[in-house]
Specification:
This protein has about 80 residues and is mainly alpha-helical. About 85% of the residues lie in helices and about 0% in strands. The protein is built from 1 helix and no strands. The relative contact order is 0.05.
């Protein structure tokens, strides 16, 4: 079995620390990207909600026009 010295352990731990630091940096980048995606998703959801509101208003206007023209029976 190979002799394990304090110097060898120190070198291994130092290498592990370097890798963990890089991993921590990478995780920070991923977190930032996820936050950006979350923001885009929220904006997209708001846009869809706005489109639904506009569509509902247009549908209501069209229904009123059709009722005035006698194309639809008035809803009671």
């Amino acid at each position: 079995m190979a002799n394990v010295t304090n110097d060898l352990l120190y070198e291994v731990l130092k290498a592990m620390q370097t890798r963990l630091d890089r991993l921590d940096d990478s995780m920070g980048e991923v977190k930032g990207e996820l936050q950006a995606i979350r923001g885009h998703l929220s904006a997209t959801s708001q846009d869809i909600s706005t489109i639904y509101q506009i569509t509902t208003r247009q549908d209501q206007r069209l229904e009123r026009i059709e009722t005035r023209l006698g194309l639809l029976e008035p809803a009671h």
